[in-house]
C-alpha cells in the first residue's frame, strides 16, 4: 500500500455518493474510485447473505485494483459485511457508515427522533445495539422505507411520484417529531422533499463521521497523500451503461446540505 494509491468507495448504487461528497471535501487531495452496484440495487431489500457476498466481492475487486483503503458507503452493507471484509483484509483500512443516532441524540436529548432506513438496516443487530445505547437519552422511532432507495436510484427527484411516496411514509409523523436520522446513504439527496412534508427540522446523516474516521485510519496507517493538487474522482458501475455514469456525476454535483 502506497500513498499514491486510490481510496475505493462502494455502495449498492447512487446513495454512497452522498458519502463520497463529504470524503472529497475533507480529503481533497486524495484520489477516489466510486463503484456503484446499481445492477444489484437496492441492498436494503435483499437477504443478509446476498449483501455479504456482494459486499465482499466488491471490496475484493477494489483492493485488487489498488485501493489503499475501502469505504463501505452503505448502512446495510456496513452492518452485514464490514467485519467480514476487515477480517479478510486486515492490512487495509476498511471504514463503514452507520445511522447518525449518536449526534442526533446528543443534539436533541429527550426529543423524538425519526430514524428512516431500509428494512434490513433496522433489523440488523448493529442498528439495534446502537439504538439501545441511546434509549435512555432520547426517543428513537424507527421507520422502514421499502422502495425508497430504489426510487432515488432512478433520479428525477422532483417528480410527483417521489413526493407521494414520502407523504405515505411520513404523514403520521407531521408535527410529531423533532429531528430525522437519514439512515440510508440515498436519503440525503431528498432532504428538500422530506422537509416539504415534515417542515424545517434537523436532519442527521453519517457522512461527516465516516470522513473523519477515514482520515484517522489513513493517518494511523501513514497513508495520507502528501500531494498538493486536487485529487481525481473516477466513477464505475456494475450497470454497464454510459447513462448510469452520467447519473452518478449528476448526483455528485447535487446539493445534499439543504
3D structure, described in words:
With 258 residues, the chain is an alpha/beta fold. Helices cover 44% and strands 15% of the residues. It contains eleven helices and nine strands. The radius of gyration is 18 Å and the shape is globular.
SSE layout and pairing:
Elements: E1 7-11, H1 17-26, E2 32-36, H2 48-64, E3 69-72, H3 75-88, E4 94-95, H4 101-107, E5 112-117, H5 119-123, H6 125-133, E6 139-144, H7 148-153, H8 160-170, E7 179-182, H9 191-198, E8 203-204, H10 207-220, E9 233-237, H11 242-253
Parallel strand pairs: 1-2, 1-3, 2-9, 3-4, 5-6, 5-7, 7-8
Helix pairs in contact: 1-10, 2-3, 8-9
What are the main properties of this structure?
258 residues; alpha/beta; Rossmann fold; 2 domains; 5-stranded parallel beta sheet; 4-stranded parallel beta sheet; 15% strand
Amino acid at each position: 500500500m502506497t500513498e499514491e494509491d486510490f481510496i475505493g468507495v462502494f455502495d449498492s448504487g447512487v446513495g454512497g455518493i452522498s458519502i463520497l461528497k463529504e470524503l472529497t471535501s475533507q480529503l481533497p487531495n486524495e484520489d477516489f474510485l466510486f463503484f456503484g452496484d446499481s445492477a444489484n440495487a437496492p441492498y436494503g431489500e435483499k437477504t443478509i447473505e446476498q449483501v455479504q457476498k456482494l459486499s465482499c466481492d466488491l471490496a475484493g475487486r477494489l483492493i485488487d485494483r489498488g485501493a489503499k483503503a475501502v469505504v463501505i458507503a452503505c448502512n446495510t452493507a456496513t452492518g452485514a459485511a464490514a467485519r467480514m471484509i476487515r477480517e479478510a483484509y486486515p492490512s487495509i483500512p476498511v471504514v463503514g457508515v452507520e445511522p447518525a443516532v449518536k449526534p442526533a441524540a446528543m443534539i436533541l436529548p429527550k426529543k423524538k427522533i425519526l430514524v428512516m432506513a431500509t428494512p434490513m438496516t433496522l433489523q440488523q443487530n448493529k442498528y439495534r445495539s446502537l439504538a439501545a445505547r441511546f434509549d435512555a437519552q432520547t426517543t428513537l422511532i424507527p421507520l422502514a422505507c421499502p422502495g425508497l432507495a430504489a426510487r432515488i436510484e432512478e433520479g428525477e427527484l422532483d417528480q410527483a411520484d417521489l413526493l407521494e411516496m414520502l407523504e405515505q411514509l411520513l404523514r403520521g409523523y407531521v408535527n410529531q417529531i423533532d429531528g430525522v436520522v437519514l439512515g440510508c446513504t440515498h436519503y440525503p439527496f431528498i432532504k428538500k422533499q422530506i422537509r416539504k412534508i415534515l417542515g424545517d427540522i434537523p436532519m442527521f446523516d453519517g457522512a461527516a463521521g465516516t470522513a473523519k474516521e477515514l482520515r484517522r485510519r489513513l493517518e494511523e496507517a501513514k497513508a495520507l497523500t502528501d500531494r498538493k493538487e486536487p485529487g481525481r474522482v473516477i466513477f464505475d458501475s456494475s450497470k454497464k451503461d454510459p447513462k448510469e455514469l452520467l447519473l452518478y456525476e449528476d448526483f455528485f454535483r447535487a446539493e445534499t446540505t439543504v
